[in-house]
Fold these 3 entries.
Entry 1:
Amino acid sequence: MTAPTAELAQLTGVYTLDPSHSRIGFVARHAMVTKVRGAFNDFEGRVVFDGDDPSATAVTVTIRATSIDTRNAQRDEHLRSNDFLAMETHPEITFVSTAFRQTGADTFDLTGDLTVRGVTHPVTIPFTYEGSATDPFGNLRVGFEGAVTINRRDYGVTWNAALETGGVLVSDKIVLEFEVSAIKQS
């Protein structure tokens, strides 16, 4: 998160993600020919940012697996099952940051531990700082966008179906997408 130094100092503080103005989504290839997009509609997150020492930034995000939404009820139920997210055993997907590294004037890498189905692996998500603004209610908001590709098999999500024409029904590679609006707490 880089901006002019004076702006960074103003951004120091604790922020909460605004779920009504943020999106945590994903993209998977389906049947080798198209993409299915979805999102998680129930999540919360907290960011502690120090403009004097951005490397000390700490981020935590908790996503409720049951909130998965691909605009298809039958597919969503399958994704909630033991074949995929196993939400009854693992109701939450979590991310806890371990490092924050500035990579450009408005870009940074956020590294942390992503836990899906009780399996944790480190991921590094490149983000772009989209800016800050005071909303009509007097809240300071900051915006970020980022994406990272993970292999779902690394997290024990291995279900698939072979296609008659070759290939499989669901790609192993999943793109996680983040469009974040965070509100500074007073």
Entry 2:
Amino acid sequence: MTVSVLIADDQAVVRAGLAMLVDSQPDLAVVGQAANGEEAVRLTAELLPDVVLMDIRMPVVDGIEATRRIRGTGTSPSPRVVILTTYDLDEYVFDALRVGARGFLLKHAPPEDLLRGIRTAVEGGALLSPSVTIRLIEAFAADRPRPARRPPAMARLTPREHEVFDLVVAGRTNTEISRSLGVAETTVKTHLGHVLEKLGLRDRVHVVIFAYEHALAAPSPS
């Protein structure tokens, strides 16, 4: 199945670069481009893309408001929105996730991460740039009570799965984990799948949330 993608960015050169990257993949295809948030909302309604790559700072209507409108249309299935921006300010991250974005990636991220963000969104998961993930979860965990007991489900993980768990919590990508452990990236994906299944979690973002909720990781000192 080919995944249809709409690109929304007010800079023509950025749209062209993203379109070239997306169209280079056999399973992805750009179906439209928008220069502002209002146009993104209109084209999404007309073209019904699987994924919208959405910039935040755009004229007429910004990316956050455009995402809110797209996610609020009631269309089934609703297009997945992945925020793609040069800004990783907390206010943007929280607002984007609050209105229903399925990913928050920085434009200077490696191309493979951008492509992974699209595919992860289609599969129903969420992908955040590692630095964004850590800051987001630290903020999330700041006011949470710290449990006194290690969750029993952790005992179901194998030693290798524990290693993968810890590296995901540290914000490492699958590629970085494969290099760190000296195994193939497909092997990392298999281990991560087992971790998600055994802990009853949906995606790697929820792995990090789980770790902070159960005192398996601590927020960095301020």
Entry 3:
Amino acid sequence: MKKLQELLSPLDIIKIIGSDDKNITALTSDSRKVEDGTLFVAVPGVSVDGHRFIPMAEEKGAVAVVCQELPSELSTHVTYIVVPSSALALGYLASQWFDNPSRKLKLVGVTGTNGKTTTATLIYEMARLLGHKAGLLSTVCNYVDEKAYPTDHTTPDPYTLNEMLHLMVEAGCEYAAMEVSSHAADQQRIAGLHFVGGVFTNLTRDHLDYHKTFEAYLAAKKKFFDMLPAEAFALTNADDKVGEVMLQNTRAHRYTYSLRSDADFRGRIVESRLDGTLLSLNGNEVELLFTGKFNAYNLTAVYGACVLIGWQKEDVLREMSRLVPVAGRFQAFHSPKGYTAIVDYAHTPDAVVNVLNAIREVIGKDGEIITVVGAGGNRDKGKRPIMAREAAARSERLILTSDNPRFEEPEDILHDMEEGLDEEARKRTLHITDRRQAIRTAATLAGKGSVILIAGKGHEDYQEIKGVKHHFDDREVIMEIIADEK
């Protein structure tokens, strides 16, 4: 239970109608969860405006309502708090509700198109390897120290986010790492959180179904750095074309990392293999269980973030060699037939390019790559032909298949992808809608020394079809195929 006055203290309030001397027993922006004593926050959503549900919330026992616009009829039993932004207010209210847990942790946020999961997860893993209790909020799974919590979103809603951070504090965690999605920044889900640092990985085309333009997507990412406090650090990829733009208006201390030029944290690939990389970090060579230039960027960012958090360089370098790849990120499976299958979450054109380039760097120009890839339904259609074109340009064989079609027909998605292929590429491309069969076909075609890339789903263990999630795991499928080959 909290006093309404206490909860409202950090808000920018236009006006209050009614008493603010009330006991609040629950906080929610979901009218279905309202009970007696609830503070209901009416947030304008992407598809539904929460203001429509104010009367329902009042009927179910809400004693206070935070809103941007007052309802046409006011209840004498309800206190109305009018604010400029309900979404912004919800973030601060959720932080207040859980006693500002982010201020009791050293919280690092990671944003960008690709590499967020790996970078955030490895910062969390480094904290634990160095003997600290830590938490993680990521696309794959949330962790409170060792305990795992399933996740549905890259960045949860403000209430869930602060609830998880509160659990971390209760468990004695000192540090936390989290992915910060563009949706979360745009929708103010991270409002009210206190970060000790932020990391930018890269920016390429993604989520244009939501943001509409690349400029709006960039602005959403940049918003995270704009909100960092002056005492925080902001670490950016100096090799990305918008790396410096991200930090233009930040108050935080600015730092850079790079594989190509002078930077505060300089990485250099000494040797690369399918099972690892010898990486030089500020002149110190470290053997790592990761492959590819994109991972070299991720690990250089991790090194920089760990040093900026305050851990000793020597300790960080020593423990980095013990880090292991994140599930579904360049995860390798070796067949007795002599081929290697790589399962990776790459679901944007740039991510597909990065993974295929990493494979090519290792196997050389004469090696064979067979790529199995699709594209998600009800998402940015413009990237579909680009993904197919980039995959075909870097593979000897291409198999287009279903991903998560959602409410679209899989065949329509594959036809959109095929639009990116020229006549020569089409001759090297198979169109197999059934994903299991597509992977089996790739395994049949692969010879000794071949590499199969199974892209797009990575850690996901489902296919979403017509609103229903059916169990499907690329890793399980390829392991079954390899088991049958023995």
